[in-house]
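Quick one: Phosphoglycolate phosphatase from Roseicyclus elongatus DSM 19469, C-alpha cells please.
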Amino acid sequence: MDVHMTGAIVFDLDGTLVDSAPDLHAAVNRMLAEHGALPLSLETIIGFIGNGIPTLVRRVMTARGLPSSQEAQMIQRMLAHYNAQPADLSRPYDGVVNALTTLKQAEYALGVCTNKTLTPAIRILDALDLSRFFDVVIGGDSLPVTKPDPAPLLAAFAELGADPALYVGDSEVDAETARRAGIRFGLFAGGYRKTPVEALPSTFVFDDFASLPAQVDALSPA
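--- reply ---
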C-alpha cells in the first residue's frame, strides 16, 4: 500500500465491521418470549438496527403492539439478554481483519464510533479479536448524544489525536453523521442500509473490505 495520506480512520461497528444482527435478533426474541409475544424474523430486526438498543426495542414493541408502559422494563431486559451474549453469533465481515491489518501497518490511527452502548461494543471487539486494532471506542452511552449528532464521531477523532481522514459506516445514520461532522465518508454497501446507495452522500462506496485499503490510498490529502 503506497500511503498518500496518514491520519485517523473511524469505523461504525454494527453492519460495518461486524454482522451483529444474529445476536441482536436472538436477544430480541428472548425478550419477547418473556412477555408472551411472538418472535420476529431476522430480516425485521435488521430493518430496526441503527439507532441504538432503546430505539430497537421501541420499534420491536410497535411491531408487536406492546404497551408503551412496558418500555423501560423491556429495554432493561433487552440489555440484560444482549449483554449476556453479545458475540455468540456475530462475525466480522469478510476481509475486515486483513483491511484493518493493512491500515494499521500504514500507521493510521483507528477507532470505533457506534450507537451500541460501550460495554457490549467492547465485549464484541474483544470476543472477535478486533480490539487490538483500535485505540479509541466511543459507544452510544459515552456522550449525552448519539449519532447522527456529530459529537460522538468528533470525539473519537479528537481522542485519536490525528487528523481525520475518513469515517466508514454502512447506514443512513452514518452518512448523516459524517455529513454533519464534515468528515469524508466511505459507505460499506454490505451492511444494514435501507436506502439505495446513490441516495446517500459518500466519498466512495465499497462492498468488499479487500478493496478498502486501496480506496483509502486513492484519497487526496484532506
